Amino acid sequence: MGGVYRCVQGCVPVCVPHSALPLTTGTRESPVTSIHLRGASEVAPAALSSFLHTEPKMPPPPIPGPSPIYEDYARCIRCGLCLNACPTYRLWNLEADSPRGRIHQMIHVELDQQPITDSFVDHIDKCLDCRACETACPSGVEYGKLVEHARAHIERDYPRSWLARVTRNFVFRHLLPDPHRIIDAARVLRFYQRSGLQAIARSIGVLKLLGLAERERLLPRIDDDFFFRRLGWTFPAAGPRRARVAFFAGCVANVTFSQLNEATIRVLTANGCEVVVPAGQLCCGALAAHAGVREAARELARKNLSVFLRKDFDAIITNAAGCGSTLKEYHHLFSQSEEEQSQAREFAAKTRDVSEFLAALGLTARLKPLPIRITYQDSCHLLHGQKIREAPRALLHVIPNLDFVELPYSEICCGSAGVYNVTQTETSLELLAEKMRHAQSTRAQTIVTANPGCLLQLRAGAAIHRTNQEVLHVVELLDRAMVSS
After folding, report:
1. Is 447:470 a contact under the CB 8 Å cutoff?
2. Which of 153, 290, 403, 450 is the most buried (most CB within 10 A)?
3. Which residues contact 392 (CB under 8 A, 6 or more apart)?
4. Which of left, alpha, beta for 3 (phi over 0: left; psi -120 to 50: alpha)?
5. Whole-angstrom distance, CA of residue 357 vs CA of residue 385
6. pLDDT in tens, 32-49
């Protein structure tokens, strides 16, 4: 709201927003104040003419999809229960890098129309979007929705560096949505890894000189065969068919986790599922949505909705917790007036994480004993995003002779967080070091998790900290325990 200001000489009232007024330390008596405006004769004619003929500034285009309203921010009662759940607050003890601190900053930008500052961008960029604060919050604050909208606002209005703009535009708008570009990039990386160039680059120190040494250590090994070749295939159930499911294969997982995808299909078919891998499916859009590149995420969502809703399936299965969280929340990308909103809700109703689906369906495949000690790291977007904690543990407990030990602070992020380990590498490695310390304390031979990004991060952690621990997905361990027919 603004105040109405009237000239004492009877001029036309002028409405001035309160935010435009200088702040004072005294009390404000009334929003209606008398201000003496000088007459036209007291103002330089050129300046007055310039003022009168100033073109109004066009507002920026609206951020597509639904926007948070006042009540979404007001749910935060500043109780502080989120602080100990927040990885960045646990590291630095800074209020500005806590969920409630970031929400306070969002209110100034989103509701009070304050300009986006470098400091605001820095604090929002440092958030992992792990959503652990949502689990801890007694008021039901949907923090993930708020931070993604803040990032969309930044993407629209904040001038990042030229290199950052070019990189973000290529990755989110051209690389991830295009399977052919993913394949081309994977082949280049595979040549780098297999030809000896990687060993040379590491040994002569060129990566450190370029500031890429830490990021390069997190680079996944590229597969020999890509899972893209399986798109369009149907895998029959072993024995009586109990369900017909569609498998969401992901994007980068098709070139780095082909064996995980194959293991997922084997476990599903062994337990009576016919598995269809629909052709035409694309990246889920999670990385773009988390980064604030909302239009790219919306376009990917439209294409996936079209592909997966063409045929009737009992469930749409994903083995990636990060993908699953976004797939179940496609309706957050579309407003009520858009036709995709109802399609997204229909799609979400059928989407299941593979552990969630198998735990509900029940395992029928015979399992052999695995006499090893394991521990389990909760994937943030499975635990905090999808609220699934018991399903993966229930599946692990079914395996005979498995010695399961709970991982201390398993609910705290490992530092992967989508592309966070690339954009905020130092912080990511700090979180990873703490995670590996707790993993070592369990004396487990194998660390199990439920998301490809977590697998990459924890495998890098095992190598960096030399823990000699194997890192597997839940379904990879189930696949290993299955008795071959």
Report:
1. yes
2. 450
3. 355, 359, 376, 382, 448, 450, 474
4. beta
5. 16
6. 333 343 444 444 455 445
The b-or-e profile of 463-483 (16+ CB within 10 A means b, else e) is: eebebebbbbbbbbbbbebbe
pTM of the model: 0.84
Q: Report residue 60's pLDDT band, with 50, 70 and 90 as the boundaries.
A: confident
393: its two tokens:
């543990």
Provide the sign of the torsion angle of the four alpha carbons 83, 87, 91, 96, taken in this order: negative
Q: How many CB atoms lie within 10 A of CB 159?
A: 8
Contact 377, 130 (CB under 8 A): no
Helical packing angle, 340-350 and 294-308, nearest 10°: 60
Is it the case that residue 56 has pLDDT exceeding 90?
no
Write the pLDDT tens digit of every residue in 284-339: 999 999 999 999 999 999 999 999 999 999 999 999 999 999 999 999 999 999 99
Q: Is the pLDDT of residue 28 over 80?
A: no
Which residues are paired to 34 by β-bridges? Answer: 6
* pLDDT above 70: percentage of residues in the chain: 88
